[in-house]
Amino acid sequence: MRMSTSHCITITAIAAFFMVASAGLSAADTLPPFKDDLFSTQTTLQTGNGGAFDVIDYDEMRDINGRDQIPEKRTQQKYVSLGIRKLQNNETLSLDGVKLDVARVGPSAGAAFTVIFIHGRDGDRRLGVNDYTFGGNFNRLKNLVAGNGGVYYAPSVKTFDSDGVTAVAGLIRYASAQAPGRPIILTCASMGSQICWGATRDAETVKRLKGMVIMSGVADPDFAKSAFYKAKLPLWFAHGSRDPTYAAADQQALFETLIKSRYPTHFTLYQTGNHGTPIRMIDWRQTLNWILAS
Question: What's the farthest any 2 CA atoms get from each other in the chain?
Answer without folding.
Answer: 49
